[in-house]
Amino acid sequence: MADLFDSSKAEKQPLAARMRPRNLDEYIGQDHIVGKGRLLRRAIAADQLSSVIFYGPPGTGKTTLARVIANHTKSNFITLNAVLTGVADIRAAIKTADDFFKLYNRRTILFVDEVHRWNKAQQDALLPWVENGTIILIGATTENPFFEVNKALVSRSRVFQLKALTKEDLMKAARMALSDVERGYGHWKVEFEKGALEHLVDTANGDARSLLNALELAVETTPEKWNPEARIPEPAWGSTIYISKETAEESIQKKVVLYDRDGDYHYDIISAFIKSLRGRDPDAAMYWLARMIRAGEDPHFIFRRMLISACEDTGLADPYALGVVTSCADAFDRVGLPEGRYHLAHAALYLATAPKSNSSMAFFDALSSVEKEDVEVPNHLRDSSRDAEGFGHGDGYLYPHAYRDHWVAQQYLPTELVGRVFYTPSTQGYEAKIRDDVLSRREMQISSILENISPEKPETDASCGMHPLPHFANDFSNPIGEWWINRNFSQNNTVKSENLTFTPKDERKESALDRADKSWRSRLDSNRAEVLLSIRDAMINLARLTRHTRSLVWNADDGLLLWDVSRKTPEGITCGICRSEKGKEIMEQYGRTLDDLDRPILSVRPQTSENYLSSEGFKEVLNSFAEKEILFDRIFFRDPFTSQDSADVLAYALNETKSLVSSDFSVIISQRIPSHGQRISDLVRSQVLTGIGSKDSDGENGFPKKFEYILKKMELAENEFFSDKENPLFNWNADSISESFRKYGFEVKSASKVVTEKRRISEAEINKWFDAKNSAYGTALSAAVGNEDLEKIKNLLVTASQKTLFNWNTEIEFITVSVIE
């Protein structure tokens, strides 16, 4: 068995091998996987790793991550290279793992590099041992594991996708190598001509191994002699090594275009190319075409896809498109490369600028109908040459050429499908010219057929002898098959990001989360639950969570957000701040059936003398999580503000704690605005007095005039009360909240939504509202309306409250706060 991590003769290893990180603190990039607080980092730190597959392009750190795990774990660690090993090596590894488990009760972590190179039988050999926990598999692959790795192994593993390193990551790796005296070139002063190091980074194209190999070549070939292991090192320690731009260019001569003829990049790039043609973006089409040709893609494959696009996407909007692409493909076969690139570009530009119609999808809608229904050919359309005399086949057929314009209205579809519309011309290009004619003939055809329909029995409810259209009439307006719309379109303008992680569905975990999620709903009446769910869903949508997002939920013990956020971020982490120790205990009880790494981390919020969050308390909370190596990407608040001061404090606290959250964090807030709350005068007018009529209903809307007059005075008093600039409860709104954050340089977006809750109002509540002595609201109304008139409105409301379920309107402001990029 090969040991990929043998540390002997380290000095003679290439720079890329010597500079492999030894722990997570030295690991560069892949923050979505090993960033502070992410699931994988916590699993490695706790030595509770389950089977995982690392998937990504070369040089992104897959093997390095396995090495870090090997340095950290207390489990037995075995490494295999799928290219160099066979079934015998697998059996030997399994035997070793089994012995360790039986003798020492220790698991074995088996790292398999290039795991996709094993055949199905080799991968199957591991299944029982992965299943029973004897072996924890770490697979590394450059191919999509969902296609290239045994499905049974994938279903038992978490999948983490590693992305090409950014330029900042590569620059950091280069500077670490240049400054490291033990493994790199820290003994020398390596200087670069302006732009030389940047050229190495740019050309490496996200591959750290390529960068370090090029750096090694540039540094070690520049001095006349390179013998650092000599008794007197050459060149001498402390001497300057100057790397010119020419040397850098020679060290890494060609930028490698990441592409594989059979893997994800092959299909992703051709997909981007076709979608650019469909979207009529000639610039993007040229870029993706160049990417494919530069990487050596087969031009015939590209032409094949363009021939499909000519009919699928351009279609009859430009019937000549197919001929143009076919001609270009024929010309390419005669000319070949490199001149044939003109024909590729010609065809692509024609398609990218042609009008578009996918009306040929009508065939697939018809195919769907064929699969659902097996109907007979109408008699008049049958072949009359064989049995017209015996069965009357073909009888009644109208020969179109015998009629004016060589057309006659008659039935061509089976009787059961009469009126079904499969094809509707678009309004683009050539189809726009034929559209009116096609639709007109269809209308005439339907009219003619309906005249000949003889219903078996008249409709009893048709007073004029008319009969309804057949069941297919609703299909007239269907321009594109429903199957195509459902499959290819959704009403969502948000860009999504690619899933970079995957965890097999855990029924036990889902069941536990469902129970916790439903527990709080069971205590609510149906409408209240609907209102809360609408708030939750809006906040979740604004957060744009990924599977690896790290989230903090404030006041988590209401259970509204905690469990749903946890469910949507299985490879991230969800933490919650509870109002009380009791609330924390309840939430922990619900999460007890989850695995340790899946449970939300809960704590109790700091006590404060104010009735809102203090900046010190907020910083204390974030510090406590930072000590656990958790940095948050999203922070959720529901109704955190009670005044403008509370908004100012949170804005200040966020600005002071930027170092304790991720660089691209955002805060999602839902906030009720007290000054925009339900007006009692409007409630009485629209829900109490509606429908009340009497002989003196001479006011507007049929209300008694005495009530109308009182309600107008009451409305003016309410408007004045809720807009009082001296009252800290009402002198703030969404604009002032946004301004609090913007003055610290944050980007703020807000949107409001009015939610209607069905609620009963008790007599005690009404008495409290209208109490002129103990209620500021009652005092204001009494002064403006008068006690006698106010008592009339109060009595109306009390009477109505005994039998009315009121619609109570509340304005919710949704605010997102993020760092300006």
Write the layout of secondary structure elements.
Layout: H1 15-18, H2 31-34, H3 39-45, E1 52-55, H4 62-72, E2 76-81, H5 87-104, E3 108-113, H6 120-124, H7 127-131, E4 135-141, H8 145-148, H9 151-155, E5 158-161, H10 167-179, E6 189-192, H11 196-204, H12 208-221, E7 240-243, H13 245-251, H14 264-278, H15 282-294, H16 299-314, H17 320-335, H18 341-353, H19 362-372, H20 384-391, H21 429-451, H22 482-488, E8 501-502, H23 507-521, H24 526-543, E9 550-554, H25 562-568, E10 573-578, H26 581-590, E11 601-604, H27 615-626, E12 632-638, H28 644-656, E13 661-672, H29 680-688, H30 705-722, H31 734-742, E14 746-759, H32 763-769, H33 776-785, H34 787-801, E15 806-819
Parallel strand pairs: 1-4, 1-5, 2-3, 3-4, 6-7, 9-10, 9-12, 10-11, 12-13
Antiparallel strand pairs: 5-8, 13-15, 14-15
What do you see in this structure?
Belongs to the AAA ATPase family. RarA/MGS1/WRNIP1 subfamily. There is one protein chain. The protein has 821 residues and is of the alpha/beta class. Among the domains are: 30-161, Rossmann fold, CATH 3.40.50.300; 167-251, Helicase, Ruva Protein, domain 3 (Orthogonal Bundle); 264-356, Zinc Finger, Delta Prime, domain 3 (Up-down Bundle); 374-383 and 393-451, post-AAA+ oligomerization domain-like (Orthogonal Bundle); 527-673, Rossmann fold. 45% of the residues lie in helices and 12% in strands. The chain is built from 34 helices and 15 strands.
